[in-house]
Amino acid sequence: MPRGVRWAALVLVPALAVPLGGAPPVGASEAVTIQMHNFRYCPAAQAGCFVEDQAYAAVPTTGEPVASTYNPVALIDVEAGAQVVFRYEDGPAGLADPLTCDSFAGGPVGIDLGISQLRCPGHSVVLAAAGPGGVRQSLGFLPQGGRGQTIAWNVPADLAPGTVIPFFCDVGDGVHHRVGMTGALRVAS
Ligand SMILES: [Cu+2]
């Protein structure tokens, strides 16, 4: 075999070991940042979260998903093993952002409605028992005024593609998940 041909064959072997689907190598999972804003969770790349970012209807007393209520457009794709960062994005009330949790009583521009449940306590992230872990698990809580603060979590590396991981905010005895603050990750294929 001419020397040049043998060299070309050696170079091709590692290239063929890469899956044709273009999947990244293990350990290269991309981090995903999710904002907590307007009583919703949504990708940080969005200008803000909106009503349609509710991922599922929650059982009022538990925050668990009501069967078959997942909103397909609100599922956030992540890779197994990736880091997920939840970022508190609520801020003071203003013309462009009038309805964040922080705009309620006690916020920087607070409106005291005299109803304790309407006072913004902050936001939390709780993995639902309906997810692959099988048990409810709190990932963290950020108090009112926590704009810019984060909670980080790693998606288990052994989850199968298509696995859905529901989560919700459980502050105020569940008042936030009852108004739609529910999210769901989906392990990408
Ligand atoms: Cu909340």
Describe this structure in words.
There is one protein chain. By secondary structure, the chain is α+β, with helices and mostly antiparallel strands. It has a domain at 34-88 and 123-187: Immunoglobulin-like (Sandwich). The chain is built from two helices and nine strands; from the N terminus they run αββββββββαβ. The protein is globular, with a radius of gyration of 21 Å. The two termini are 41 Å apart. Mean pLDDT is 81; it is low at 4-25 and 107-112. Bound molecules: copper (II) ion. Copper (II) ion binds at residues 123, 169, 171, 176, 181. Copper (II) ion (CU) binds at residues 123, 169, 171, 176, 181.
Helix-strand blueprint:
Elements: H1 3-16, E1 32-37, E2 40-43, E3 76-78, E4 83-88, E5 122-127, E6 137-143, E7 150-154, E8 164-168, H2 171-178, E9 182-187
Parallel strand pairs: 1-4, 3-9
Antiparallel strand pairs: 1-2, 4-7, 5-6, 5-8, 8-9
This protein binds copper (II) ion (CU).
Copper (II) ion binds at residues 123, 169, 171, 176, 181.
Highlighted features:
single chain; 189 residues; alpha+beta; Immunoglobulin-like; 5-stranded mixed beta sheet; 4-stranded mixed beta sheet; 12% helix; globular; binds copper (II) ion
Largest sheet, spatial ordering of strands? 3-9-8-5-6
The backbone outline, from C-alpha atoms, is globular
CATH architecture of the domain at 34-88 and 123-187: Sandwich
Structural class: alpha+beta
- Name the hetero compounds present: copper (II) ion
The run of helices and strands is: HEEEEEEEEHE
Q: Count the beta strands.
A: 9
CATH homologous superfamily title of the domain at 34-88 and 123-187:
Cupredoxins -  blue copper proteins
Helical content stands at 10-25%
Separation, N- and C-terminal Cα atoms: 41 Å
Cα-atom radius of gyration: 21 Å
| CATH fold description of the domain at 34-88 and 123-187 | Immunoglobulin-like
